[in-house]
Design brief:
The complex is a heterotrimer of chains A (142), B (296) and C (810). Chain B is of the alpha+beta class. Chain B contains eleven helices and 14 strands. Chain B is globular, with a radius of gyration of 19 Å. Chain C has a seven-stranded mixed sheet with strand order 3-7-1-14-11-12-13. A five-stranded mixed sheet of chain C has the order 9-17-16-15-10, sandwiched between helices. The chains are: A mainly alpha (142), B alpha+beta (296), C alpha+beta (810).
Chain lengths: 142, 296, 810
């Protein structure tokens, strides 16, 4: 596809490709709602020009769910981790990246991994519990 | 969200080509690496380059190497790369410690340390930390290559010594020959992501000598030369620490802005210096807190 | 009492799968095709100015621009409780960032470029940015035409002043009450403005189709109320409710900010101007901060008297609110507080003056707590201090005065059943109240702070809910209602209520975000009332359905309806144990008789809930005589706070909150509200610090400098406690909860700070910086710089209250 140099990756994903799970939250990289995995690494698409990712692979939650829910997603469901859900795609991907690098994270490591994804609804506790529950360590009562 | 400003985009395959383009366009071109600074600036309308020069196509700029006691970090090395590098963790743990308090994972996966040095924002964390080492910025330009000692790199807020057509290709950091311990303390408004309202980096070298820098309390990161001189050659004592803390107001020129008052910055630099000295000396002795422990 | 099977359980959220797969659609995700137009708004750089001229000619010439709209295209007023707003101002702007024009273009980039070409000439006026100035006799008026605005009858603006509304409550005789007191304490507290910071920014798409039908897709908590406000505002163009349809998909957080109508009116107006084309208005994060509702700032003076045995004898509570340039919604916040600013205590003598003041800052409006978060800071801080002055334990002091069922409220009505005493006791036990804790680190100290809270929904007396239920051929059912899923779990709770009555499991119930054309009416999803109000309507609809099922079985099969019951999605009969009729066999097709004909047909039910006992009519001088609040939800909370004396950094080691929800329909969701609400409440005291310059410009309209908590900024431990003292008129005894869980946070931290380090902070926020400086002999307000959090930059104690309101200009 063709893009202009000034086209932001987030806008191209949403408006040209119809991939709606990365959200517009702040347009400055502060909130994490626009997160996707770029060659496996979480990035803020609001701070990337579309042209920069020529040749790269992008994964969004739609891609994760294609083969069925991942154990992490099932854990989020089981723990009722999300409320309004707007931050969910970004958090799912940040946590997916974490577990890919570190299958047994500590609570501190889970918090670090999602610290760039702002959530206003849940207070984060049920999200952290859900990630710890699939991290092969018993989930602590938080 | 839409960037209204229109510009050209080029991705040169070699360093030579990148220099050629930057020399040709001068201030009308901007180099793009991670983009976490530049894309935001263009979006906000703060800068309006005619051409954006993506340097991510240039080979050889993404390496972290330790050779002959000198760590070389290429211009495309991200904060995450540093954070995950075993060399950095083992030999420069305070650099790794700093990366944990820069932004968030999603930003660190793109943002480069050299880009951070080039942004030259007063709250630049990497500049403050690297200042305690013998560090040099590697520059390539139309007149060839040069090395700029980090102490001479920053001219002021958002200003470096880079000349027309020049591009920073990396930074080198010399591993101190003596045994040492270090500590980076960053003042933030909470535990989450924040730009530094002040920072203190202490490098404690065996033999009671120190390299200390203060960040975000002056137009650029500064070496705390008076404090270093006070402490030099003497074993650290409570009394000496308090004397050092009392020198702080002479070393720094903080401002009051929406992030913090100058009174708080001044007070906190004293507290951070005290705690940082203790931690660095403790780490030198092998008894200090684990790197990455928040001291404030 | 039959055992409940579904209500009281915690089934998986109905919308959970949508949200973790990316299937959930929010307004900005909806696709409208290549015809979708984009809007960019032109904003005022001044806090207060006359608009002399707007030249749109250059903007109109930009290729791709379809239309440029200004106030003269739309001189129509709107507003929820008072119509003091225009869609685009025609004569003057009243806050920095207010919209004065909009460009509609083929794409967002063109709209942005063209918007920069719109030339507006202003004549600056002196802005009203100080509450003391605002109420002076010679004050500059923010609304010179205040007397002409249509308004609801229980609001009292004073024309010729900046006093937009006041609520006076008088009960008993406070003079006498203070005479009876052995100890009196009087002081002033200041609470700045706050921003909602829902992660989804406001967005709306409007389409005025070629047949004259206006449809809005809106990120709103209140589709029907939005439709009503649009109908009011657009009536001069010939539109009525029938012509307007509002569709609301999932909303990415509301917290009150997406209630009423703020920026959405722009979408409706622009749609009218580009007939046949959909047009989207999407707010940036910066606009979210400065051009939607904000939580109002307030200065409150409290005088409290008590006998030496701890019995409170009188309260005098004056609150002056920085309500912003428009108060069409915010005036009700002021009103609600005026009725309830005693807090959840029995106080025989009450004098409350709650005054709504126009200023030239962004409009104030509904924010989780609706004024109660704002006033509890001062009140619960003050209670602690009076207790200590009495030499009494602060928890014991609260216990002694805590309100009980049947007590007379400040405005004369009676208190509903509530478990406040149980809440106090259980929180005190959980927090180990009375036991001092000491950290190992010599730099740190630990303090504990306690606060009670209450809140009633603040609604008009006819805020009603309704619901339809219909079946599908497979025996599953659909609930049609217009409450909004803003994250709180509303969809799941409604499904549980229907499931309990009809025995259809939650997994076989479909309920979705509404469309005003298809879904039954709901006033708004605000006030923490939909579990109660809409829940009652859904329950009534379910009971209606059940009644119809029994009626048709009786008619078709001769079984007496008194013997029938429902179980496992079947109709069964107590007189005939072998009888069972699965729903799917008859709820669409009817029941076939032996003659071959079918009796019945599609089973449908409806339910309506109107709180018929409420009334807003009362004596304007005393507020006595009405029953303005349906009921209160009460609770208590406490925190264990560790303070670093050198750095001022505070860490919440443990936060406990007990809330009486009557009946927890879904305990997991209630706990979710406790955790989320506490974290949001703690943020208002510890981190969020709104900064205006002295000309009224918001300086930290972004997450970089307006800090909301990340996953790293949480209490070590949060303990939610659910109390259940049934609400007699609630579905299965349920009462609403949602806002309440953030209300006590600021005061409990302030009380913990005093307990830990002896510092009493009377002005929010309580940041590490403030604590560190105060502990080291520097008064924070002296050095903080030329910023303000609300329209008053002086010391709280220096604010002069005028309880009789402003003087009119001669």
């Amino acid at each position: 596809m063709e893009v202009e140099p000034s086209d932001i990756l987030l806008d191209v994903l949403r408006d040209e490709l119809g991939v709606k799970s990365p959200k517009i939250g702040c347009e400055r990289g502060d909130c994490g709602a626009c997160t996707v995995l770029l060659d496996g690494k979480s990035v803020r698409t609001c701070l990337i020009l579309a042209i920069e990712v020529d040749g790269c692979e992008i994964t969004t939650v739609e891609g994760l769910s294609r083969a069925g829910l991942t154990p992490l997603q099932q854990s989020f469901l089981k723990h009722d981790s999300f409320q309004c859900g707007f931050c969910a795609p970004g958090i799912v991907l940040s946590a997916t990246e974490l577990l890919g690098k570190n299958p047994h994270p500590s609570e501190a490591e889970v918090k670090e991994a999602i610290a760039g994804n702002l959530c206003r609804c849940t207070g984060y506790k049920p999200i952290i519990e859900a990630v710890l529950a699939v991290s092969s360590k018993p989930a602590r009562r938080l | 969200m839409a960037i209204a400003h229109q510009f050209e985009y080029v991705k040169p395959p070699t360093l030579r080509e990148a220099v050629r383009i930057l020399a040709r366009y001068g201030a009308r071109a901007r180099a793009l690496a991670g983009g976490t600074d530049l894309v935001g600036l263009i979006s906000d309308g703060m800068v309006a380059p005619e051409t954006v020069v993506d340097i991510k196509g240039i080979p050889g700029l993404d390496r972290i190497e330790l050779k002959n006691g000198v760590l070389s970090i290429g211009a495309l090395v991200t904060f995450s790369d540093l954070r995950e590098s075993p060399i950095v963790a083992r030999k420069f743990p305070v650099v790794r410690e700093m990366t944990g308090w820069v932004a968030s994972v999603g930003i660190r996966n793109r943002a480069t340390i050299v880009g951070n040095l080039c942004s030259a924002v007063p709250c630049c964390d990497s500049g403050a930390v690297l200042l305690v080492y013998d560090a040099e910025v590697l520059v390539a330009g139309p007149a060839g290559k040069r090395k700029v000692p980090l102490r001479d790199w920053f001219l002021g807020p958002r200003k470096t010594v880079l000349k027309r057509g020049e591009i920073a290709t990396g930074v080198t950091v010399a591993l101190p020959k003596q045994k040492h311990g270090a500590c980076f303390v960053k003042l933030r408004r909470y535990e989450g992501e924040d730009l530094a309202q002040a920072s203190v980096t202490v490098l404690a070298l065996a033999g009671n000598s120190y390299r200390i820098s203060f960040g975000s309390v002056a137009p650029r990161p500064i070496a705390a030369e008076r404090v270093e001189a006070l402490l030099d050659g003497q074993p650290l004592s409570e009394d000496l620490i308090q004397k050092a803390v009392r020198l702080v107001p002479e070393e720094i020129a903080p401002i009051t802005d929406i992030r913090a008052t100058k009174e708080y910055r001044r007070h906190m630099v004293g507290v951070m210096l005290e705690r940082g000295l203790r931690a660095a000396v403790g780490r030198l002795a092998g008894t200090g807190p684990e790197y990455g422990t928040s001291l404030i | 009492m039959t055992q409940l099977k579904v209500v009281g359980g915690s089934p998986s959220r109905i919308d959970g799968l949508d949200k973790i797969t990316g299937a959930a659609n929010y307004v900005d995700d909806l696709a409208f095709g290549p015809d979708l137009l984009h809007a960019e708004v032109v904003e005022s750089p001044h806090a207060h100015a006359l608009i002399k001229s707007i030249d749109t000619s250059a903007a109109e010439k930009v290729p791709g621009v379809v239309r440029v709209v200004t106030g003269k295209d739309f001189p129509y007023r709107f507003g929820l409780y008072m119509q003091d707003r225009l869609i685009f101002p025609t004569d003057r702007v009243r806050f920095v960032g207010e919209q004065v024009a909009a460009v509609v273009a083929r794409d967002a980039k063109i709209a942005k470029r063209a918007a920069k070409l719109v030339k507006v000439v202003y004549k600056e006026l002196k802005p009203v940015l100080d509450l003391t100035e605002a109420l002076r006799e010679d004050a500059v008026l923010v609304h010179p035409d205040l007397g002409k605005y249509p308004r609801c009858p229980w609001f009292f603006p004073q024309a010729g002043t900046n006093l937009a509304h006041f609520r006076k409550t008088r009960k008993g005789d406070v003079e006498q009450g203070f005479k009876e007191a052995d100890v009196i304490l009087e002081d002033t507290y200041t609470v700045p403005r706050y921003a909602h910071c829902a992660i989804e920014p406001h967005a709306i798409v409007g389409l005025y189709d070629l047949a004259g039908r206006l449809t809005l897709w809106s990120a709103s908590q209140s589709p029907y109320t939005q439709r009503h406000v649009f109908a009011q505002a657009l009536a001069p163009l010939g539109l009525t409710h029938k012509d307007i349809r509002v569709v609301t998909p999932y909303v990415g957080g509301g917290f009150g900010g997406k209630a009423g109508v703020s920026m959405e009116i722009i979408g409706a107006a622009l749609a009218m101007m580009v007939k046949g084309h959909p047009v989207k208005v999407r707010w940036s994060r910066a606009q979210e901060f400065y051009n939607t509702y904000q939580r109002q700032g307030v200065i409150a003076r409290i005088k409290l008297g008590a006998k030496k045995d701890g019995t409170i004898t009188a309260i005098e509570h004056s609150l002056h609110w920085d309500a912003g340039g428009y108060v069409e919604y915010g005036a009700n916040v002021v009103n609600a507080v005026g009725l309830s600013a005693t807090g959840p205590y029995r106080v025989p003598n009450v004098k409350i003056d709650s005054v709504c003041v126009y200023t030239n800052l962004p409009p104030g409006g509904p924010y989780r707590g609706f004024g109660y978060s704002e006033f509890h800071f001062g009140l619960e801080s003050h209670l602690d201090r009076l207790a200590r002055k009495l030499g009494m334990d602060p928890v014991e002091f609260r216990r002694k005065n805590a309100i009980r069922e049947g007590d007379t409220l400040a405005y004369g009505a009676k208190m509903n059943p509530s478990g406040l005493h149980e809440a106090i006791d259980r929180v005190a036990a959980e927090i180990r109240w009375g036991q001092r804790e000491s950290p190992k680190d010599p730099n740190k100290v630990i303090g504990k702070g306690f606060a009670c809270f209450w809140k009633a929904p603040a609604m008009p007396p006819n805020a009603s809910s309704s619901a339809f239920i219909k079946f599908n051929e497979d025996g599953s059912l659909n609930i049609s209602a217009s409450g909004m899923e803003i994250g709180q779990g509303y969809l799941t709770v409604m499904a549980q209520i229907a499931a309990e009555v009809l025995t259809v499991p939650v997994s076989r119930i479909r309920i979705e975000p509404p469309d005003t054309d298809r879904n039954a009416y709901e006033w708004q999803t605000v006030g923490s009332h939909v579990t109660w109000g809409c829940g009652n309507a859904v329950k009534a609809a379910a009971l209606d359905v059940r009644g119809k099922m029994f009626e048709v079985v009786e008619r078709a099969l001769g079984l007496s309806r008194d013997t029938l019951y429902l179980e496992d999605e079947k109709v069964k009969c107590r007189a005939r144990p072998d009888f069972e009729l699965p729903f799917k066999d008859f709820v669409i097709s009817g029941i076939q008789t032996p003659h071959g004909n079918f009796i019945g047909g599609p089973i449908l039910g409806s339910g309506v809930f109107m709180p018929e006992f409420t009334s807003a009519l009362s004596d304007p001088e005393t507020s006595q005589g009405g029953h303005p609040n349906v009921h209160y939800t009460v609770g208590a909370a406490a925190a264990i706070l560790e303070v670093d004396k050198q750095t001022g950094r505070m860490r919440v080691l443990k936060a406990v909150l007990a809330v009486d929800v009557g009946k927890a329909v879904h305990p997991g969701l209630v706990k979710g509200q406790v955790v989320g609400g506490l974290v949001q409440g703690l943020a208002t005291v510890l981190y969020e610090d709104i900064r205006y310059d002295l000309k009224g410009k918001l300086l930290n309209a972004n997450f970089t400098d307006y800090k909301i908590p990340t996953a790293e900024d949480l209490p070590d431990e949060i303990v939610p406690i659910i109390i259940e003292v049934a609400q007699p008129d609630g579905p299965f005894g349920a009462r609403g909860v949602g806002e309440h869980t953030m209300i006590p946070a600021a005061a409990m931290v302030a009380n913990a700070v005093e307990d830990a380090v002896g510092l009493r902070v009377k002005r929010l926020p309580i940041t590490a910086e403030k604590v560190a400086l105060e502990l080291h002999g520097i008064h924070y307000d002296d050095v903080k710089g030329s910023y303000m959090g609300l329209c008053f930059a002086g010391e709280p104690e220096s604010y002069a209250f005028r309880t009789t309101g402003a003087k009119k200009r001669k």
